[in-house]
């Protein structure tokens, strides 16, 4: 399924590595509005925000949530050793994404 680009490309740092993400902002939100709930989407084994699974962030965005979807360290366009699945590094990057939001 193709999705219209409704996200901003963002980045943050985790353990010194630049992590690439997509930030979906609610359609009716503008700077200065009250805070709203946000959801961080984890992509499982693929480790990439735009390989598959883009339906979930899109549905959450349509429901009015902020959504952050990102590439694991070493996957997609995030920095790090390519293809290195390390759960503790992925957990640290998840924690760092919370501080980004």
What's this, in brief?
The chain is α+β, with helices and mostly antiparallel strands and 101 residues long. It has two helices and four strands.
Protein model, in words:
The chain has one domain: 3-Layer(aba) Sandwich (Rossmann fold). Helix content is 22%, strand content 25%. It contains 2 helices and 4 strands. A 4-stranded mixed β-sheet has the order 1-2-4-3, with helices on both faces. The model has no long low-confidence stretch (mean pLDDT 85).
What is the mean predicted local confidence, pLDDT?
85
The biggest sheet, with number of strands, parallel, antiparallel or mixed sense and barrel status, is: 4 strands, mixed
Q: What fraction of the residues are assigned to beta strands by DSSP?
A: 15-25%
What is the H/E order?
Answer: EEEHEH
Please give the count of helices.
Answer: 2
Find the structural class using helix and strand composition: alpha+beta
CATH topology: Rossmann fold
Give the beta-strand count.
4
The parts where pLDDT drops under 50 for at least 5 residues are none
Query: Order of strands across the widest beta sheet?
Result: 1-2-4-3
Tell me the distance between the termini.
27 Å
* CATH C-level name: Alpha Beta
Summarize this structure as a short list of keywords or feature phrases:
101 residues, alpha+beta, Rossmann fold, four-stranded mixed β-sheet, 4 strands, 22% helix
């Amino acid at each position: 399924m193709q999705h219209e680009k409704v996200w901003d490309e963002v980045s943050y740092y985790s353990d010194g590595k630049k992590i690439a993400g997509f930030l979906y902002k609610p359609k009716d939100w503008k700077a200065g509005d009250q805070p709203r709930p946000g959801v961080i989407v984890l992509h499982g084994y693929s480790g990439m925000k735009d390989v598959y699974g883009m339906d979930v962030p899109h549905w959450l965005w349509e429901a009015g949530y902020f959504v952050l979807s990102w590439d694991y360290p070493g996957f997609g366009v995030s920095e790090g050793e390519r293809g290195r699945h390390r759960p503790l590094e992925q957990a640290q990057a998840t924690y760092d994404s919370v501080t980004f939001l």
